[in-house]
TrEMBL record:
Component of the proteasome core, a large protease complex with broad specificity involved in protein degradation. The formation of the proteasomal ATPase PAN-20S proteasome complex, via the docking of the C-termini of PAN into the intersubunit pockets in the alpha-rings, triggers opening of the gate for substrate entry. Interconversion between the open-gate and close-gate conformations leads to a dynamic regulation of the 20S proteasome proteolysis activity. PROSITE patterns: PROTEASOME_ALPHA_1, PROTEASOME_ALPHA_2. The 20S proteasome core is composed of 14 alpha and 14 beta subunits that assemble into four stacked heptameric rings, resulting in a barrel-shaped structure. The two inner rings, each composed of seven catalytic beta subunits, are sandwiched by two outer rings, each composed of seven alpha subunits. H.volcanii produces at least 2 types of 20S proteasomes: an alpha1-beta proteasome and a proteasome containing all three subunits (alpha1, alpha2, and beta) that appears to be asymmetrical with homo-oligomeric alpha1 and alpha2 rings positioned on separate ends. The 20S proteasome core is composed of 14 alpha and 14 beta subunits that assemble into four stacked heptameric rings, resulting in a barrel-shaped structure. The two inner rings, each composed of seven catalytic beta subunits, are sandwiched by two outer rings, each composed of seven alpha subunits. The catalytic chamber with the active sites is on the inside of the barrel. Has a gated structure, the ends of the cylinder being occluded by the N-termini of the alpha-subunits. Is capped at one or both ends by the proteasome regulatory ATPase, PAN. GO terms for molecular function: threonine-type endopeptidase activity. GO terms for biological process: proteasomal protein catabolic process; ubiquitin-dependent protein catabolic process. This is Proteasome subunit alpha. One of its GO terms (cellular component) is proteasome core complex, alpha-subunit complex. Belongs to the peptidase T1A family. It comes from Halorientalis regularis. It holds the Pfam family Proteasome_A_N. The keyword Electron transport does not apply. Keywords: Cytoplasm, Proteasome.
């Protein structure tokens, strides 16, 4: 009982380390990320791909209100998993910093620079009393000025990680295992789109609906963030034999809270 009460005491203070060096509120924020539906990022030789599971819990909900893919700048896209409101705050912060860099230096911001600006902002909320960590993880992908594709993850602790391919949100472990088994060096953008859809399908009974999937790419050639349409996604699902039967009934949703996507 005494050990449990001590842990609860450390739970209440975001700025206080437990005796074993843990910040419990940061760990709980990571659990909030796991409650969100999956988001995937894949780096290819000629661009980056962002894919998200954006299943809608009710036919009465407007599909456009489910926001998991975001344009931070012309050459940078962001996918999120976790608390939607927290994600929106960080997306707005990233967009402001991208525009400030453009106005101040007359050039687009680097992908790594923007990622570290965001993670520095996140980290501040692990040291300030009266605040809480952001319960969201972001996948930030884009093309640097030298034409190099970059792909990063932000953690609720404020730590940035660079990846070749990654997943955040629900089923992260299963999706990451699939990516580790099937990702190849030298993959091109079209192959990365297919791999992202297959990875999502691997945790959805190999059956996806175009309206329940979001896909975006940033190519080396044009350095432009571009979201695929439902028709383009459907064509890809048909080619990969992943298109769900229209008469199939959706399974249980990953989250039971409208604030988590």
């Amino acid at each position: 009982m005494q050990g449990q009460s001590q842990q609860q005491a450390y739970d209440r203070g975001i700025t206080i380390f437990s005796p074993d060096g843990r910040l419990y509120q940061v760990e709980y924020a990571r659990e909030a990320v796991k409650r969100g539906t999956a988001s995937i990022g894949i780096r290819a030789d000629d661009g980056v791909v962002l894919a998200v599971d954006k299943r809608i819990r009710s036919p009465l909900m407007e599909r456009s209100s489910v926001e998991k893919l975001h344009k931070a700048d012309d050459h940078i896209g962001i996918a999120s998993a976790g608390h939607v409101a927290d994600a929106r705050q960080l997306i707005d912060f990233a967009r402001r910093n991208a525009q400030i860099n453009q106005l101040r230096f007359g050039e687009p911001i680097g992908v790594e620079t923007l990622t570290k600006d965001v993670t520095d902002h996140i980290q501040q909320y692990t040291q300030i009393g009266g605040a809480r960590p952001f319960g969201v993880a972001l996948i930030i992908g884009g093309i640097d000025a030298d034409g190099e594709p970059r792909l990063f993850e932000t953690d609720p602790s404020g730590t940035p990680y660079e990846w070749k391919a990654l997943a955040v949100g629900a089923d992260r472990g299963d999706v990451r295992d699939y990516l580790e088994e099937n990702y190849d060096e030298g993959i091109d953008l079209d192959e990365a789109v297919g791999l992202a859809l297959k990875a999502l399908g691997s945790v959805n009974d190999d059956a996806l609906r175009p309206e329940a999937v979001g896909l975006a790419t940033v190519g080396v050639d044009d350095r432009e963030f571009s979201q695929l349409t439902d028709d383009e996604i459907e064509d890809s699902l048909v080619d990969l034999d992943l298109l769900a039967d229209e008469n199939a009934v959706d399974g249980d949703e990953t989250t039971d809270d409208a604030t988590e996507e």
